[in-house]
């Protein structure tokens, strides 16, 4: 499993290991507000969730050579808490905007319930769960305009909104340019990111359809372990959680509840 | 006058082994809770001074890395790129690593221990290959050949392995206009300020850089491509740089470090 592995990063079955983790509860999750690219911190509960994630990884002897994360602190901090707990604060950490959460356009900052009251739940559902309908674009004079954020202001082609399709379009180049080469060079990779950037990634890895990915819930702060063959195609894990080839670490009951819990929380994200 | 760049240096705060009074060097001990608190205090000084960073360089030791992360978090800039380089590590303390300082003095005598600790070029005894804390046991140093991996170091050795990082990597970064924060250790910062301010060997070996007090340098680009410090108002002699924070408290802290013969 984890523990000592070959310099080429392959496990005893000749497979690469890739671990994905979605950050835990943020301050705005608690306040029930659409977040997107706004750089809100983790809530205390989100910090606890990161500890739970690192415990699962520790108990199975996981180690990493590099961590990839977004430019948003809720994911960065989740990743750092895991690395700290595993004694890996020294490994390279590469932060990339292409792992950011989906940009939520003009909805960023708004309370979710109020938005439903204003626009109707059907419209809001479309913005939240369709594949290619983005929320209304954010205007440049919004307090949340990405061009005013220190981490985003020098990016070319700043989005003013995104649908999941747009998120996929910028995650895939990141996979090809950054992550895939790192894995192939034998490095064990941890990706600490967000619900939609991870959806984009697993959609690609597992060849999921647009419909399948829109209804897929990735639970927060539960490490999702992928095994990849030499061509970086997923090898179905024992205990894989369909439709994914990867398996979640942790108590199966807890995992099942977490996944179904996200589906049922229509008031939350 | 050439272009002026700001460089911020910080030495990590109290570690678990500072409290236990043990020689540390390359052993990767965590910050003590007091050291964590010190890092937040440092962040506050930096914030009040209005300093910004584009990039952080730190060592591969968690006590310096964590100090850097706490500062970034408090400044709300966790997205800032952070690079870890072994050449910013604390001086490697050889066979003394892990030993209690008082016991070491009892065993070898105060004079000998003082030479190991405060001379410029006399390293402690080398660490044997089977030592509990041998860096070969750590994956993070796999990429260093046996010739490159130190088994003990004097301050002179630290200067020797640090300067290529400064010349080849850090100087170009600063000259490119990037605002750099270096979070490191007592002896690597000694190596740096020795170079910047041309401090003699016997003086630098006894220069106390207080923990977790941001040290700000203004560096001017010279015609020949070098970076020379410009003396800042409030500079703390013999350095051109100034410490951020309560100056009286800092003076007392420095005097305190000098007097704590039992601590580092």
Automatic annotation (TrEMBL), chain A:
Catalytic activity, reaction form: (2R)-2-phosphoglycerate = (2R)-3-phosphoglycerate
UniProt key word Isomerase: yes
Entry annotation: catalytic residues: 23, 101
Protein name as it appears in the record: Phosphoglycerate mutase
Organism phylogeny: Eukaryota, Cryptophyceae, Pyrenomonadales, Geminigeraceae, Guillardia
UniProt keywords, alphabetically: Glycolysis, Isomerase
UniProt xrefs under InterPro entries: His_Pase_superF_clade-1 (IPR013078), His_PPase_superfam (IPR029033), PG/BPGM_mutase_AS (IPR001345), Phosphogly_mut1 (IPR005952)
GO biological process terms on file: glycolytic process
Family recorded in the similarity comment: Belongs to the phosphoglycerate mutase family. BPG-dependent PGAM subfamily.
CDD domains found in the cross-reference section: HP_PGM_like (cd07067)
Residues flagged as site, Transition state stabilizer: 194
Binding site for substrate: 22-29, 35-36, 74, 101-104, 112, 128-129, 195-196
EC number: 5.4.2.11
Gene3D superfamilies to which the protein is assigned, alphabetical: Phosphoglycerate mutase-like
UniProt-annotated stretches for the region Disordered: 115-153
Pfam families: His_Phos_1 (PF00300)
GO molecular function annotations of the record: phosphoglycerate mutase activity
TrEMBL record, chain B:
Site (Transition state stabilizer): residue numbering on this chain: 185
GO biological process terms on file: glycolytic process
Top-level lineage group: Eukaryota
PROSITE patterns: PG_MUTASE
Annotated binding of substrate, by residue: 11-18, 24-25, 63, 90-93, 101, 117-118, 186-187
One GO MF term: phosphoglycerate mutase activity
Active site: 12 (tele-phosphohistidine intermediate), 90 (proton donor/acceptor)
Record has Isomerase as a keyword: yes
Family: Belongs to the phosphoglycerate mutase family. BPG-dependent PGAM subfamily.
Protein name: Phosphoglycerate mutase
Organism of this sequence: Guillardia theta (strain CCMP2712) (Cryptophyte)
